[in-house]
Amino acid sequence: MTAKTLISFERLAPRLRERLRQNRAFWLAAMLAVLAVLLAASLAIGTRSVSLSDVAGALAGHADTIGEAVVTMRIPRTLLALLAGAALGLSGALMQGMTRNPLADPGIFGVNMGASLAVVIGVAWFGIASSQAYIWSAILGAGVTAVFVYAVGSLGRGGATPLKLTLAGAATSIAFASLVIAVVLPRGDIAGGIRSWQIGGVGGATFERILPVLPFLAAGLVLALVSARKLNAMALGDEIAAGLGENVSLGRALSALSSVLLCGAITAVCGPIGFVGLVVPHVCRLLVGVDHRWLLPFSALVGAALLLASDILGRIVARPGEVDVGIVTALVGGPFFIWIVRRQKVREL
């Protein structure tokens, strides 16, 4: 590279950085606007449509029949969809960053199903009933599953390659799904509720169910933001990251702990919702690039928007009934998963 080329590049670099900052600011404003529209739509659309004036009245405290329904049913549901989407999108970005695997996702890696199995065992064998017991069981199950999948994917030559981690996660998820059925089948008294919860949804949300989850989600968010810079370094490779002074093991541990907290807490409340963590980070990379300091917050915003949109769609297509959000995200995520596999090509994973 000639001196003239270097000088030209140095002059061009600030313009590129400024253009990138402007694009990020644009996408941030656009995403916030989309999220605001979806929040209003989630409050207004349901088995019975509610006008925005009635929604505003309910938020202002006017106690009529429609307003009471909005406050007691749709606001908690909307809040839960917002939190669940943000947590799953963020955890997917963390998993893809720390494993450098474009197919990483809490569902594909079996983490959601591990959390589900732990909750089902707790309900069927130990009679747990409180929200705190559900949350701790789910987090424990998610953490044990994450360690197990990583250990299995690390066996053999080459260590934990993306392909081996994906295969280990998929096999674990299938095995745990079968174990859930085996645990539930003899227990007819809990089978109906467990089956409904296993689909994954935000219906029936209440503030009493949401409040115990908030500290765990807050802790997961803080750990995610702390690990953003380390993930940027790890994207260059473990050896280069260590050479830059980053503690690779600590960065991977923080990211894993954050992902486990986010996945486990949300699975305890909503059940296993798949593919949000797979789809969202890829969309966000197209919008804001690969810098995790931007990618992680954007993944939370886009994840919240995706789950809200999926929940609204599920209410519309089956009126007066509804389709659970877990089914809608599977219909969206399945084809996207196939596209990612074809685009990345298995031999490159």
TrEMBL record:
Transmembrane segments: 25-45, 78-95, 107-128, 134-153, 165-185, 210-228, 260-282, 294-313, 325-342
Annotated keywords: Cell membrane, Membrane, Transmembrane, Transmembrane helix, Transport
Protein name listed in UniProt: Iron complex transport system permease protein
SUPFAM superfamilies the UniProt entry points to: ABC transporter involved in vitamin B12 uptake, BtuC
Family: Belongs to the binding-protein-dependent transport system permease family. FecCD subfamily.
Main localization category: membrane
InterPro entries attached to this UniProt entry: ABC_BtuC-like, ABC_transptr_permease_BtuC
Pfam family, one: FecCD
Annotated GO biological process: siderophore-iron import into cell
GO MF term list: transmembrane transporter activity
Annotated localization: Cell membrane
Organism of derivation: Martelella radicis
Membrane topology: Multi-pass membrane protein
Entry GO CC: plasma membrane
